[in-house]
Sequence to fold (406 residues):
Amino acid sequence: MKIVLGVGGGIAAYKAAELSRALMERDFEVQVVMTHAAEEFIRPLTFAALTNRKVITDLFASRSGEEVLASSVEHIRVARENQMLVVAPATADLLARFAHGLANDFLSTLYLAFTGKVILAPAMNTEMWNHAATRANVETLVGRGNIVLPPAEGSLACGEVGAGRLPDPVWIADAVQSLAAARHDMDGETVLVTAGPTQEPIDPVRYLTNRSSGKMGYAIAAAAAERGARVVLVSGPVNLPEPFGVQVVRVRSAVEMRNAVMAKLPESTIIVKAAAVADYHVANPPKQKIKKTPARLSLELDPTPDILAEVGRNKGDRLLIGFAAETTALVEEARRKMASKNADMVVANLVNQEGTGFESDENEVTLVMRTGEAVQVPRASKKIVAGRIFDQALKLRLALHALHDA
Ligand code: PMT
Fold:
């Protein structure tokens, strides 16, 4: 896909170089357009070298006769040749000019002529971001269908701390990729996803946990958002960037996860329980650190709430998808769990084979369904596996409705 990367004149302009590379790594063809202010922060040559393409900076760049004519309509050519316009950093000035239809340089002229998807990544001082004028401009732009990526929080170039940082370029590139791939076969769905491990305190210092990285659940949440669903991701402690367009609710223990899931259940239409929830916990951990002694330490563990089973008891006509992490008898165990928890589908994966299951970037699963079907999904990235889960889930729901109506 061909996209224009508009670079505004903010200190974060240097990050646009990494963003251009990240976009090209995702097979986008990138045409860079810079404002004159951006040239004060980074030279066009940097982008020309990275994108292997002329960088556009001036509305009337050319000097000779026929070139002047060509350049005077170049913004129209660029607008028609590209499917997406990404502006990063989108300065307060650019947001204001876009919102008020000013077209006094190449980028703002291009913006007015552009008919494809527009993604704006604002970056500025926190006070500027919070200023009523900027808020009004953002509201206007969102109201016209522009996608405004939320600035990140953190330390700013001016030394202050707060909202206004340009998000990580890789995160922006992932968001662009997600928006470029956007389908709409899950418009109107509200998908509740759990991901990651839980942490069960033994004392104020120690806890029980497992090897879940959250990658499978985060890929599922991203896949649903990409297809138009509203997504709520209840996540145990993981070290992953929040998927674009997904509301993340962070929890630690199985009890906290259970409370968050049950609170979000009423508004959900599809539930996917990919989290590796601890089966046992110390019901009342001591308030003080357990002192080390030469004697053996025994822990008394109680079962944690079985969230999948509780959701199954309150499922209604929602679609409930559980997981099964097994080391043997995969499909049999998955069928047993599906029946006992009233799930409509169980995603079964072996967690004792190299390169799939916990922590890996890939997975290999068997989708066991209430209709009796079992569909093999061969080893692939967790993103692809997540897409296949929803492909099957949407078919399954149609089949279950047909069975119900028959
Ligand atoms: O996070 P990654 O590193 O990407 O690894 C992915 C994964 C291996 C964690 C994932 O693919 C997976 O298998 N998740 C389920 C792990 C698990 O807890 O499986 P289980 O067979 O122990 O539990 C069965 C189902 O019951 C799961 O849907 C689980 O979320 C749910 N459960 C379990 C215990 C509990 N107290 N409440 C639950 O809801």
